[in-house]
Amino acid sequence: GSILQFLGMTLPLLAVYLYFLYLAITRPTIADPDNPQYTDDRIRLTDILYTYLATLVLFSSLVVYLLWFVNKRRRLSKRYEKEAIVILGNVEYNDSHWGSEDGTGSGSGGNFCTKLYRWMIHGCTLRNNYGEVTYNLERVANHPACNYEHRKQKSLNGIITKKVRVYYRYPREQVSILVLPEYPYSGQPKIDMEADWASFSSSVGLRSDSSRSLDVDGVDGGNYARAANTPQTSSRDRSPGVLLVAAFWIAFLLFASLYVVFQIAAVEDAYEDETARTAWIAFGCAVGGGVPLIAGGGNLLRWMVYERWILKSGTKKKVSSKKRKKKKRRSEGEENEGDDDDVEGGYIQMT
C-alpha cells in the first residue's frame, strides 16, 4: 500500500539523518585542537542544519498538500456529482506503453535504449493517465439548467477540446460528459469521475459492468470490450497513515534542527566555519518564513493552477456557419430526425 511505499522510501533517509544527528552529538567531544580527530575531514554542522531545514520544508509542504489541497480537490470533484449537467461527447486516448512508437502499445519499434527512454518519460510524466475530452459547447447552452449565455451575454458555440484525467484508458465516442453549468469548459468523462469518487469513498467500488455498458457499449460500438484493464481504484482513507509518518518527520526534523543549532553554539569557538548567529538566522527563516511561504504559498499556487485546469482550460474550435444554420433549422423542426448532425446540440437530462 501507499503507507508501506512511503515508509520504504523514507527509512533509508531516516538512517542517514540519524547518522547526521550522531555526528552532531559527538562533535563537541572532538572540538579540541589537542584531539587527534580534530583535523580529520568532517561534515559541517551548519550543512547538516541546512539539510534538516530543507527537508522540514518539504515534509511540511506534503502535510499541507494532504490536509488542504486534497480536500479542496475532493470537494471540487464532488461538485460534479451534485451540480453537473450531462451531455454527450468523445474521449480521445493515445496509449503510449513500453516501446510503442505509434501509440498502440505494441512495443515493436525502437531499440532497447529507445524503449527504456520512452518508458521512463511516460513514467515520470504520468502521460498515460491523461486523455482528451471533446464536446460541443452548444450542447451545454441547450441544457435547461445552463444559464451561462444569459448571465455572461455570450453565445456558446464551437467544439471544446481539453486534457483530462482518465481511469479508463481507451478511446470512447458519444459517452456521458459532466459539465458544471457555470463553467462550460469544465467537461469531465462521467465514468472516470465515478472512479475518482470511488477512490475517496469509504466503501470502495465502481458501477457494475452491466451498468457501465449502458454508458459505453450502447454508444461506441462495443469499445468497452477493449477495456479489460479496468481502473483499480482504492480508498484514500490510508492518507491518515501517510500524514502520521509525515508528522513524525516534521517533529524529528524540527527538534533535530534545534539541537544542531545548540551544538553549533557549543563548538563555534573551535571552528571558524561554525557560527551560532548564522545557525539561528537560518533556523528562524526556515521555520518562520520558508515553511509558510513554500508549504502554504506553494500549495495555494498549485491549487489555483489545478482549479483553472479543471474548470477553465481547453481549446475551442469554431463550428462553421453552415452547421449552425442546420442546427437552427433543426430546432425549428425542418431537419429530419435521422440527420447525422442531430447529436451536435443534444444533451442528456439529469435523472
Q: How would the blueprint of this fold be written?
A:
Blueprint: H1 2-30, H2 45-83, E1 85-92, H3 112-125, E2 130-136, H4 137-142, H5 148-152, E3 159-165, E4 172-179, E5 188-189, H6 190-200, H7 209-215, H8 217-220, H9 239-267, H10 276-311, E6 315-317, H11 321-331
Antiparallel strand pairs: 1-2, 1-4, 2-3, 3-6, 4-5
Helix pairs in contact: 1-9, 2-6, 2-9, 2-10, 9-10
Q: What features would you describe in this structure?
A:
With 351 residues, the protein is of the alpha+beta class. 54% of the residues lie in helices and 10% in strands. It is built from 11 helices and 6 strands. A 6-stranded antiparallel β-sheet has the order 5-4-1-2-3-6. A hairpin with an 8-residue loop joins strand 4 and strand 5. Helix 1 runs parallel beside helix 9 and helix 2 runs antiparallel to helix 9. The longest helix has 39 residues. The chain is elongated and about 85 Å long. The chain starts with a helix and ends in a 20-residue tail after the last helix. About 15% of the residues have low confidence.
- What is the string of SSEs from the N terminus onward? HHEHEHHEEEHHHHHEH
Mean pLDDT: 79
Task: Give the total of beta strands.
Answer: 6
> Compute the gyration radius: what is it?
28 Å
Quick description:
The protein is an alpha+beta fold and 351 residues long. The protein has a six-stranded antiparallel β-sheet with strand order 5-4-1-2-3-6.
Key features?
54% helix, alpha+beta, six-stranded antiparallel sheet
